[in-house]
Amino acid sequence: MSTSKTPQSPAAVSAAGLRKSYGDKTVLDGIDLRIPAGSVFALLGPNGAGKTTAVNILSTLITADAGELHVGGHDLATDPQAVRAAIGVTGQFSAVDGLITGEENMLLMADLHHLSRREGRRTAAELLERFDLTDAAKKPAATYSGGMKRRLDIAMTLVGSPRIIFLDEPTTGLDPRSRHTMWQVIRALVSDGVTVLLTTQYLEEADQLADRIAVLHDGVIAAEGTAEELKRLIPGGHIRLRFSDPSAYRSAARALREAVAGGTPVRPPGSAPADEALVLRIPSDGTPRELRSLLDWLDSAGIEADELTVHTPDLDDVFFALTGGTGTDQPSEEAGR
Ligand SMILES: Nc1ncnc2c1ncn2[C@@H]1O[C@H](COP(=O)(O)OP(=O)(O)OP(=O)(O)O)[C@@H](O)[C@H]1O
Ligand SMILES: [Mg+2]
Hints:
P-loop_NTPase; ATP binding; antibiotic resistance; 2 domains; Alpha-Beta Plaits; 13 strands; translocase
């Protein structure tokens, strides 16, 4: 198993032309993915984009309508058994049984993986310790907090020491501390050479963890690359001037237009979104030099803004630019059937 993260590494997971529809609703419309062994790949998308559908297909829980799919070197169509043996899956919704204790949940997983009684106990104890659940191990899982349940969920996934792990929204609903703990857990897995495919709605999470990120939208991969590559896809940063007084805003906008027409080195404001009617956006790289020249100009033009913020593009901008800022979450005709 390679621990190199270069795209030339053997693919741990690959999909070509992956399709899935429910009734006449196309959820995945020909997706291509390639996840090098030992890397973290984040599938990002708004609610209903098809992230869980993709994970469920790649983890053999549901079947695709079409596509060449390989996981761990095995063909999903002909050898789903081998794929199942190679992977671990933490679903979007908990697999924890609340009626039994955390330890019992772990031992159940050990049984499923045919570990001997002794080995099962050892593995359970070790993972409970690693996920800070030793004190709670003998309590019914129903009494655990959301964060503890999520940790138990992932601990259960690791019982069989899978080399490829699917994590569907591993940190949704976790507080910042638990989220950081989870990130450490994921990083530790990766440093052991494990391949991780995770889905997330949190751009920061993808930014923090993923070697590569794919943005899923309208059934296709709208963009794919490193966080840096994705950020480069969208226009640069800007400075925002916010006004509370509409007349101050109007005269500032007018002065800005005149400055642009008169050749003053202030670039024209971009169009402001409707909910920020009193905000002027001035394209800028946010360097001190540009900022100083803008402040000088504001001073000389007698413009007083209530707030000035420098905005450099982040993954949120990429996400909104690529997905139009809306979810695609329409209940499907077939949902629940
Ligand atoms: N069993 C099903 N029957 C019919 N439609 C389904 C089924 N499962 C999913 N869908 C539809 O497929 C689309 C994608 O759903 P999916 O759960 O994959 O989205 P997601 O990206 O995981 O969303 P979220 O971020 O909310 O978890 C949705 O429109 C959903 O209604
Ligand atoms: Mg989902």
